[in-house]
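User: My advisor, Dr. K., asked me to get a structural model of this assembly before our group meeting. I'm new to this, so sorry if the format is off. These are the inputs:
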Amino acid sequence: MSTAIKPQPAPPSAIQKARIPHAGRRKVYRGFGLVLLIVIAAVFVLPILWTISTSLRTPAQSFDNPPQWIPLNPVWSNYSAVFQQVPLATFFLNSVFVTGAIVILQLITSTMSGYAFALVRFRGKGAVFAMVLATMMVPAQTTIIPIFILIRYLGLSDNLWSLVIPAVGGAFGTFLMRQYFLQMPSELAEAARVDGASNFQIFARIYAPIALPPMATLAVLNFSAYWNEFFRPLIFLQSTNNFTLPVGLVSLQGNFGTGSVSIVLAGVVIALIPSIAIFLLAQRYFVEGITAGSFR
Amino acid sequence: MTTLTTRTKSLRAASGPEGARVRNRKRAARREGAFGWLMISLSAASILVFTALPIVFTFVLSFFSWDIISPPQFVGLQNFTHLAADQSVIHSFGVTGLLAALIVVLQIVVGLAMALLVQQRKSTWARSIFRTAFFLPLLVSAASISIVFSYLFDDHFGVINYYLQLLHLPAVAWLSSSAGATATIVIVAVWQQLGFVFILFVAALGSLPKDVLEAVSLDGSGPIRTFFSIKLPLISPTIFFAAVIGLINAMQIFDQPYVMTKGGPGDATTTTVMLIYRTAFQNIQFGYGSAISVVLFVLLLVLTGLQFLISRKWVFYS
Amino acid sequence: MTSFLSSPVSRRSVLIGGAALLGTAGLSACSPSGASSSGSKTLNVAYFGTQQAADATAKVAQPFIKANPGVTVKFNGINGTDWNDFFTKVLTQIAAGNPPDIVSVATEGVQLFAQKKLAHPLDDYVKRDKDQLAPYFKDVHPSLVEAMMYQGNLYELPTDFNAGNMYFNTNLLQKSGLQLPSPSWTMDDFHSVATSLKSNSGAVPFDWVVRLWGSWTSFMYANGGNLVTEGKYTGGDWLWSQFYANDPAAAGRGGGWKWGAPTANSDAVVESLDYMVELANSGLSAKPDVGGGSTLQGLFASNKIGMSIGGGFWAGGLHNAGMQNGSFDVQFFPKWKVQRHLFGTGGYGIFESSKNKDLAWEFLKSLVEPAAIDVLTSGNSTTPARRSMMTADRYSTTGPKNWQVFYDTLDKLPNTAPIPAPPYYNAMANALNQRTTQAMSSGNAKSALDGLQQDLETAAASVGS
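Assistant: The format is fine. Below is the predicted structure of the whole assembly, which you can bring to the meeting.
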């Protein structure tokens, strides 16, 4: 949290003295906490490190144990092989378009509807919200055929918009935003209303700006969900030129998985790079957003 | 659900003659109602057309027998009576329930613990490193990470058993025993989705009222007591949210068993969605597959409803 | 494809193929449904493979496109881990009202598509163009053709096949002081090779994949068992008397395999799966990957496995996985009660719903020209169905040295048969996978196979055949 906004704590000296009996125990807690944190964080990162290091090994070395965690002779040709085998730039641009459009559109619709479900009173709210919630409980595998038929009816087969349009209204996003708005004080709205602000002004000027943290959360979650989406693009898209990255990259695996493991993993790493970049960029907004939202 | 939002009457402060006040209030309420509908219109319309209608289609289809190629045949309740006696369906619900319970509980406990520990770190730098570490798995597609894990968890050639044996621990039959395969799927699912829960908790902990926390720490309460008496109640809405979403997601688990175990060994990790996929798409019994979907849907609906009911007892909305 | 340009055989056959196509295009110009009468027509081909492979394969259509101006052939690569996966995706496209004209289907799906009336029988076309097709049939073993038949009708012209032979890592054999076994080796020999590999090389002696083709099912065939009762449909004489009149290998062929009542818990089947459990328990084989074994070739190529079941497609796969020519070789599958192999064969079928069937047939014919099969089997990713294309030259880059085994499995071992693929293949494959992993984890083959028997009986009843 940036120290700029955080209220400065009282000068420590006096308080610290009062806490001395606790200080030792607290240190042990913190030390133990740090060790636990490092161990678990390592568990989370190691599989990805293994993926990266294996993508830099020759296929023949890829199953060696102990794995060579730091490849001494990195084999970059696995990466150029990815570019040779598939039109990666096209896949990339398609993914950027689809993911970008869905993230932006869902941010708009989910923030609006989440706010309405949490803080606006209107008839039928409960019923509509129940419908929204209920739609989250159906596995995508079971509704894919009717959606596909709908897509064809709309003339959107083999079109990138076929992935975007059905995803405009996010049930999950609505739920997420609603939960956040529920935790926000309603006094702000009342004060503004007394000042003569319209319903929309209250939303746009007061609530939307302090809803930045959940918006950032939603954006990043949606980004990672749709960037990696596999099932819908696989069925909705037919031409190679329309493929998104996950569908395009899976071709590296080959029939019956006969592709080289190292090249497959190189593809996984390439697809991962933009995700990491976006997250590192968005992380700043997380931190700022959370800080901004932390004063009440 | 509206009962969850408790609010003071907003217009009490307005003054004036009684009649005008009532008129104003009515007009304002009407305006607010129209505004609410306008705000939800985009989401609701899109969800209605692209999710709700297909669900209705699924419901309708559950009363038919359909192999895609020839026209559907109406069979009444036959799919459901068949389903009630189908051991593989019943078993799949058991598998799904077990996996979901383990995943949701582990996810919340570990996610909250990690969020608390990261919260303790003073340096922004360390926080961002750890945050990235926990969030990283969420950025990889479930399908490709499942491929990676099937290499890592391989009984004979995998890295994990190699290190276990190096530590003089017995090699685990990760992917060739029922318990091992269940554990592997739980581990991979928690590994992958923890970042989501973690970020939710970091945000929730970050927005706790500073004055209250400082008052408590001045009070001399230890961190554990502070957590259970102050922080936990304050972030209970977030825990509730994580549990609802986590359960809905975990009950639909598909990618990990599909890629890593194909539902095996035997049917030890055949989840309900896998069974639906297999029935509908591989055995081409769309009607029967839809009937299983309907049962799963109703079950999820009931479970979520229960969660909402129980939440009134423990979730604290400020 | 380099082999396409460098091999003189190929170049000649391009010319022949092209000329033949020009001829047919000229003929069909008069008929109203003919190819060149249409301004622009598109043939959609659903291809089992990556889009990259589909694009490479699309080259195969160039002579055809040249001969049929205004016609486009679109290869849509549909990737999958196995045939089941592929069929699922094709069926989804059909469900959404988007069926392809032509689909690549292996033995696995021939009866599935035929029984559901998705595929169009080729009988009339074959009879009509018999002179043109005579050289092709002469070059293809009748068992491959028979595997493409159902109830007396022919649904596909085989382009390639793979039989379940045994592959050896020759580095590991040498390390253990062993040599490639003789063609007539037995299950006892297999056991002693495995034991020796285990104690001398430190590698896992044998590994296998859970699936229908080349799984423990290879042991089952060698033990004289099968999952279902074997039989033949009547009919098909029109084909055998026309093209295979003087071929002894065609004697007794019928109208396609009739897969009858399930026999999954018969003694021979139980014994063979029990053998697999014992192999794993004694450390002579790895417990097979429950997930489908995408790593098997990689492990084999990196000297972690001594023996495994593979067909001609393993040559290209191992080469791609970085294995040097000469560090692996192939032999027949050992004799147990019999020396019997299973195989699968691939080809292209015409969809019943296609509006361009005549055109599709012309294209199908062009696909069995040697030049076309050369493209389809490039890099030895699979084995050509045409005997004349099995040359030392073909295997000079990838290996193996003993490549003759591939076609000899058909020519020299007359009891070689296709994998059992009844119309309920999808359900069968799922049940087989599930029950196999159940047997391997519980160690109880009998009860798993009792379950399989029940699964198959249910599946067979639901198809009603």
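One thing worth pointing out at the meeting: Chain B has two domains: 11-74, 86-314.

User: Perfect, thanks a lot.
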